Structure formats: structure tokens, C-alpha cells
Amino acid sequence: MAQSWDAAQYARQGRFVADMAGGVFDLLAAQAGETILDLGCGDGALTAKIAATGARVVGVDSSASMVEAARGLGLEAHLLPGDELTFDGEFDAVFSNAALHWMHNQDAVLAGVKRALKPGGRFVAEMGGHGNIASIRVALAAVFADWGLDAYGMDNNFFPTATDYRARLEAAGFSVETIALIPRPTPLPETGMRGWLETFRRGLLDRLPEQHREAAIEKTVALLKPVLHSPEEGWVADYVRLRFAAWVLVASP
Fold first, then answer.
1. Where are the alpha helices (DSSP H) in 74-133?
2. Spatial CB neighbours of 96, under 8 Å, sequence gap ≥ 6
3. Pick among 3.30.1360.70, 3.40.50.150, 3.30.1360.10, 3.40.50.300: CATH of 7-248
4. pTM above 0.85, yes or no
5. Can you give the pLDDT at residue 8?
6. Does 30 score more than 90 pLDDT?
7. How far is CA 167 from CA 4, 80, 175, in A?
8. What share of the chain in percent tops pLDDT 70?
9. Domain coordinates in residue numbering, the chain
10. Is the pLDDT of residue 239 over 70?
11. How far apart are CA 74 and CA 101, in angstroms?
12. How is residue 251 annotated by DSSP?
């Protein structure tokens, strides 16, 4: 599933992603004068918040629409996939929020992050973790089966356990300070589950003939309403986040 992004749509229907990133932002603890790489910077909402601390921030993202939006905020942002980082020893920290689970080659991502950091630099990130959007994925699988399609097989998200990702980080040369799965039920904007699907599952929906996409959305929403919607709270997505802080191991002299 090749996911495509529209920065204007994301600003309307996905702003909660940055708004709910306080925990990982605090874990970064950016300091004035530091150089920080925002990996998967999106439209720059969090990049700008980091820059406001006095740090110099460089953003990278694989979406041209998102990079253009970030540049519109006056930020330095580059069109660059996360598994093709070209930096070498330039940053005190690499930060990432809600982006790593979209990146295909995790070994290349981690190798690029390590290479981008100065000796002793830190990697602080939050991503979708094991069990993330489980109900949504099950509903989509049921709906897409009506058209003979395997939604699980076309879903390119990577939602690891803490044990799995700790091992990946350590194998890449990081010392893991903290890593944990954090259940985080996430209230959705007024557009609800329909808006979420149209924003975060565009790539999957695009696999259907255009005349069937509306029916697929309606069926998915109907399946999920008894599980993720209530009159009191509206739509609440079943998010689980994996948050971690890791440091580049420094070789002994």
C-alpha cells in the first residue's frame, strides 16, 4: 500500500497527531543551540515547536506536499525518504513522531539515524506499536475481502512490540534508555472515522475501483461504530504507541 499525503487534508483531519505528541516532545527535551533532525516531519507542526526551543532543526519527509507545507512555515525541510538519509555526524538528536511505522526498510532507517548523529547523540521517537488500530485493521480486512482483496497483505504499516524494537535498536548500535508500549485511545475530529480513513488509509482505498470506495468507507464505519463510537465521546480510535529514547554507543578508546 503506497500511502499518499495531502498536507491541507492532513491539517484538517490529522492535526491531533501533533497535538497529542506532548509525551515524546518532553522526552526529547530539546535545548537551545542543539542541532536536531525531525525524521518524518510532516507539515512541520512539531518541527516548529522544536525550533521554538532555540534548537536548529532540519526536517525530512518523503511527501512533497508535506515538505512544501513545512517550508511554508519558514522551516528547513528536505524531500528525503527515511531509509535514504544522507547525513553524517551532524545532529545532537534525531526526533520522530508517528512516522517510523510508515517506513519500509527499518534496518536502513536505523543505520541512517545512527550515521546522522554525533557520538553520544540521542534518538527519541514515538510510533505505532503492537496492537495499534487493531479494530480498524480487522474491519478493513473484512470489508476488503468482499472485493477479494487482502487488506492485511496490502497494509505496509509496521507496529512492533517493545521487545522487537529494542532488539533492532541495539543491533543498530544504540543503547536503549527507555522503551514502552503506551495504550492511547485517541479522540478523532468532527469528521470521525470517515475522515480518518480518507486521510490515513488513502493508499489502501486507492486499491479499489473508484466507484467502490464510498461503499467501502461506509461499510467500515458501520462495522466500527459499535466498537469505537459512543454518544458521549464520539469517535475514539484504538491507538497504541511505542515510545523510546536511545543513545549512540560510543566505542571505548
1. 106-116
2. 38, 39, 40, 82, 123, 124, 125, 126, 127
3. 3.40.50.150
4. yes
5. 73
6. yes
7. 30, 26, 10
8. 94
9. 7-248
10. yes
11. 27
12. P
